[in-house]
Amino acid sequence: xxxxxxxxxVLPSPPTGYRDLLRNKEFSGLYxxxxxxxxxxxxxxxxLGTLVNQQTxxxxxxxxxxxxxxxxxxxxxxxxxxVADGKRPRRTLVLLQLASLAGVxxxxxxxLPLAVRFALLLTLGFFQSLGTGARLxxxxxxxxxxxxxxxxxxxxxxxxxxxxxxxxxxAVLLRHLGPQGLFLTAAVLTGLGAAVVAATVREHSIRxxxxxxxRRTWVTNAELFSHPGRRRLLLNLxxxxxxxxxxxxxxxxxxxxxxxxxxAAGSAGMLLGDLAVGRLLTADARRRYALALRLLLAAxxxxxxxxxxxxxxxxxxxxxxxxxxxxxxLQEQLxxxxxxxxxxxxxxxxxxxxxxxxxxxxxxxxxxAQCLAPGAAIAVAAGASVAVTLLxxxxxxxxxx
Length: 401
Description:
Layout: H1 18-22, H2 25-56, H3 59-67, H4 73-79, H5 89-107, H6 114-142, H7 148-200, H8 214-224, H9 228-248, H10 251-254, H11 259-280, H12 283-288, H13 290-298, H14 310-321, H15 327-336, H16 343-371, H17 374-391
Helix pairs in contact: 2-3, 2-6, 2-7, 3-16, 4-6, 4-16, 5-6, 5-7, 6-16, 7-11, 7-15, 9-15, 9-16, 9-17, 11-14, 13-17, 16-17
């Protein structure tokens, strides 16, 4: 692959709405598959977190079990993420979905040792990171560039809605099916997601001629990180979000009886934020409000140090989670600077880094909760997120060009 400069271009206003996007067969297929995969991930994460909490009563292990798969995403970004831009991305995505199906189904085996469960979790994270890169690469080719932000917004909204339903349904199913039943349900949904991709998405030909692999991944990653503005952009996408996800990973330890409600409130807030920012704001407005949204993401979590009533925390988590929509304008800027032949890998690296920082956040905040009370640990992590956001605030001099 020849060397590419990440040239800045002006993104036009999105010419299509959600309804227009859903008329696109390929986007609809990617969208439905993504929805099924998100539902499977929600159910399996909730099942594993519940299982580990019951067996260990450890805030650290419970947090890591819910978000530990994100640790392995960095391995995908550093080794084989270039497969996301291979010649047959549709086939790649289907195979990765089937690999995830096998891993989720294996979690349903009763009396599986925790060490094996965590090994499966890391393996799934590796496959999922590559699958995300392949899916986002296909998405960038299936929709016009001006419709990319609405497309990501719709998928994020659906992810939030799916998580709300998944956590609520998971709590009900847990009583009747147990964790193993939730794992089997997640496996079925994962298999359906693979079938939808196979039936609706075509192979795309706008691909590099060189074979993807370790060297190609490293070359493209080196180019991605070569500019300080891009590094700052990725830092803003990764670290504040990861610390707040670490806060959410302590909900089970903070209040096991109301953890599902708090998680659902977070998903609902994320849904509202993505709807408002992705659909109602222009690209310029999204960029103007990006900093305020990142601050909103963290500040309400400071209330956990005061242990207010659950109703107050539910409202705080709902409002804070709207701040996750700050990723949309940052992702738009990254897409602007990415040549078409390597969009899958670059978006996969961005997603993998964000997911890895979610895992790191869960581990860091969970470890902090081993020394402090869960509420105090949540507040400390929220304060750190605010500090990182302010320290890494982009300036005119350091914005990517």
